[in-house]
Amino acid sequence: MTDLDPLPPLEWDPQGVQIQGFSAGLYQIEWLLVSVVLFYLVVMGFPAGEGLEVLSATIGYFLFSLLASRLHFFGERKRWLLALHTWAMIGFITWFLYSTDGVTGPLSSLYLLAVVTSALTLGVLVTMLEVAAIAACQLLLIHLLGTDLLATANLAPIATSIIALLIVGYLTASLVHAIHVSNRTLLKMASRDSLTGLFNRRAFDDLVKPIHEMARRSGRPYCVIAIDVDGLKCINDTGGHSAGDRAIMGLAHRLQACKRGSDVVARYGGDEFVMLLPETDAVGGKNMMERLISITKDDQQSISVGLAAFPEHGQSFEELFDHADSAMYLSKASGGNRISIRAVA
């Protein structure tokens, strides 16, 4: 994560990570393919009568890749654009093999570049479909070159090549999937509270930064709310820590139920929770908390709430949180189950 990221990656997005992270690598693979083709043409010579066509197609494919890299085709993280590149790669390789009569030679291994590209980014299913398309292309090349499709000498190299592509594509895609599962698990452990499933303090602090900067630039308000369970120590002493955990989880469920889609809720530590309400002033935040307290059932634990709003109570999140936290302790000292807004001089 960099300071320029609009939001930290608190939820693992394998599709976005794959496409965004691999876009530069894709162009390098395409340019590697062009380099291998040009090296072959320089060493082995141009095909008789088709030299200009081969060179023109190679340059055209390179310009296609270069243009795509400059236009940032992957800015919206669209998988079909990446798939288009892999299919274009297969088409170019097939045409080059046809022009150089290299379908059963070592040049057929160029298909491996397309398979690996697909396996790294598009998953097992698309990769298997591309391997099937490559097999069809190779059979078509044998037919177009006028050789016997049923001859063992022709089918054996193709069958061996396809099996190798299947193994490499499947294993690579499976490995990438396993890595994403592991990353998703690690990210959840790093950003979520294990008891409530809410964001933890680290994740909340990361989310606050861009929201605060956006509010500061636009002059729009946002509200910070500190919430604490009343009498948790007494609950732990009389009912044990399991009773305290149930009280904390109960409050977490209530906060999740009352929050809007744009609001952020986190367990900030111990029995303290914090909420951030974008586009909400102190009055709006207080109204939300009053509704939450008013519908508290007899079997639900009472809470103390403190509130501060940008920009009237401070110009930085740290200052706002300090005011909200102090106001929460004021509510607790006043008997709990109430909302306080600390006066600012």
The ordered H/E elements are HHHHHHHEHHEEHEHE
Number of discrete domains: 2
Largest sheet: 5 strands, mixed
Mean pLDDT: 80
Strand order of the largest sheet: 2-3-1-4-5
3D architecture notes:
The protein has 345 residues and is of the alpha+beta class. It folds into 2 domains: 14-190, no CATH class; 201-341, 2-Layer Sandwich (Alpha-Beta Plaits). It has helices at 14-44, 51-71, 79-100, 111-121, 123-144, 152-191, 201-218, 232-239, 241-258, 282-294, 317-333, and strands at 222-229, 264-269, 272-278, 303-310, 338-341. It has a 5-stranded mixed sheet with strand order 2-3-1-4-5, with helices on both faces. Helix 1 (14-44) runs antiparallel to helix 2, helix 3 runs antiparallel to helix 4 and helix 4 (111-121) packs parallel to helix 6 (152-191). The longest helix has 40 residues, at 152-191. The protein starts with 13 loop residues before the first helix and ends with a strand.
Write the layout of secondary structure elements.
Layout: H1 14-44, H2 51-71, H3 79-100, H4 111-121, H5 123-144, H6 152-191, H7 201-218, E1 222-229, H8 232-239, H9 241-258, E2 264-269, E3 272-278, H10 282-294, E4 303-310, H11 317-333, E5 338-341
Parallel strand pairs: 4-5
Antiparallel strand pairs: 1-3, 1-4, 2-3
Helix pairs in contact: 1-2, 1-3, 1-4, 2-3, 3-4, 3-5, 4-5, 4-6, 5-6, 8-9
